[in-house]
Amino acid sequence: MTAIKPQPGIMDIALYVGGKSHVEGVTNVVKLSSNENPFGPSPAAQEAVKRSVHELHRYPSTDHRGLREAIGEMHGVDADRVICGVGSDEIITFLCQAYSGPGTEVVYTEHGFAMYRISALAAGATPVEVKERERVTDVDAILAGCTDKTRLVFIANPNNPTGTMIGLAEIERLAEGLPEQCLLVLDGAYAEYVEGYDGGAKLVEHRDNVVMTRTFSKLYGLGGLRVGWGYGPKDVIDVLNRVRGPFNLSGTALAAAEAAVRDTAYVEKCRSENTRLRTWLAEALAEHGVPSDTSTANFVLARFADQAEAEACDLYLQSQGLIVRRVGGYNLPNCLRITVGDEPSCRRVAHNIGLFKAGAR
Ligand SMILES: *Cc1c(COP(=O)(O)O)cnc(C)c1O
């Protein structure tokens, strides 16, 4: 036995299993397992990446001013209270590192995003999982789950993998009811998909205990470049900037994200196509006897009779070249999460689920 051991909590972290991207022996595979934008990144972002190759020998900006100002302008937020990270995952990591640790608790919900538990454990904190109400965030259960040890509460709104969301009045009630030493983190990875929803930005401005996180990985189609951001009270952003590495984002990533956030026409097109195809997909699945909750994100959580049926359907879809996501790890073993793809992909997945329900195996 070696005397060299990691900090408590680290070995409780299960290694992350990502969405699959290929199936042995099957061609023409469609990946609907990671909530990626089926239309890819904006052409303007692609151009920015090409231009950036001439500057690869330069260290990138350390204050991210260009990107923060673009975010400020396009989202109507104060650029001085924005922090950029290597995906919003890194902002979640900063929050846990800076505000939680041994002897403290981090609260999230039973079908909440995997990074909350991982980052809490990595910081040495105790993860606390509270119930949802029929796959919807339950504010009362969260409040009941908080103690004088709670430092952070994470909710994704819309949530992944349920696709459901709660209203701003409920979120405000949550922020209002939290213990005074506790910060509420609103994960807005899918906020752009909800027309007219600011992800909680206004709430951040009116309170001193709310932080919002956002990402370029979903609607902006830049998951491969790893860019996210956080918006919070000035003193919280100052704290997070102290744990942030000075060159955490590459110049290429910064340039692409800045171009993407300014390409409002592309954003609008992706949002409206997603809404149209998501509605179509949910209705087609329902006609095949596969219900789902009303989704406000870029995926649908398809519910099956039980775990066995969900897994059999997943295997059948794989054999047909369709990769969706099992969500047993999110306490939803009877469900499959299906990303809203382009129209041919949506038709293909609905058609094959229909065949599966009609008896194909
Ligand atoms: C995809 C996702 C993220 C974002 O991850 P990035 O690190 O920004 O790629 C954050 N939260 C939720 C709930 C997500 O589904």
Question: Would you kindly provide a brief summary of this structure?
Answer:
The chain is α/β, with parallel strands linked by helices and 361 residues long. Helices cover 39% and strands 14% of the residues. It folds into two domains: 16-40 and 265-357, Alpha-Beta Complex (Aspartate Aminotransferase, domain 1); 43-262, 3-Layer(aba) Sandwich (Aspartate Aminotransferase, domain 2).
Explain the overall architecture.
Helices cover 39% and strands 14% of the residues. By secondary structure, it is an alpha/beta fold. It has 2 domains: 16-40 and 265-357, Alpha-Beta Complex (Aspartate Aminotransferase, domain 1); 43-262, Aspartate Aminotransferase, domain 2, CATH 3.40.640. Strands 2-8-7-6-5-3-4 form a 7-stranded mixed beta sheet, with helices on both faces. A hairpin with an 8-residue loop joins strand 11 (325-326) and strand 12. The longest helix is centred in the last third of the chain and has 24 residues, at 264-287. The radius of gyration is 20 Å and the shape is globular. Bound molecules: pyridoxal-5'-phosphate (PLP). Its cofactor is pyridoxal 5'-phosphate. It comes from Mameliella alba. Pfam families: Aminotran_1_2. It catalyses: L-histidinol phosphate + 2-oxoglutarate = 3-(imidazol-4-yl)-2-oxopropyl phosphate + L-glutamate.
List keywords for this structure.
Aspartate Aminotransferase, domain 1; 2 domains; 7-stranded mixed sheet; 3-stranded antiparallel sheet; binds pyridoxal-5'-phosphate; PyrdxlP-dep_Trfase_major
